[in-house]
Amino acid sequence: MDKLDITPQEREIVCRILRKNVPQHAVWAFGFRVNGTARMYSDLDLAVIGNRPLPLAVHAALKDDFSQSDLPWKVDIVDWGVIGPEFRNIILRQYRVFQEAV
Questions:
Q1: Tell me: the pLDDT tens digits for 30-64?
Q2: Catalytically annotated residues
């Protein structure tokens, strides 16, 4: 993966939460932590890639696990299955694969 503005320890926390909740989905990082303009407490934007919307319980579990983690910043989860083409195009302009689909 190309440079992403998080520490190895923070990356491990994020990976653990993603593997627990969405192991079968690709997850892409986008936004400030990808484009090099992040500040210390900029959030991490993650898009969970899929053709169908995530079940509400899975989305809630992700939000809960991230909010209870030791990460010093917020993680915003975007569900690829529900966003429109304009937002998809914004993400497609600059993203990094954070997790491959299995």
A1: 999 988 777 878 899 999 999 999 999 999 999 99
A2: 43, 45
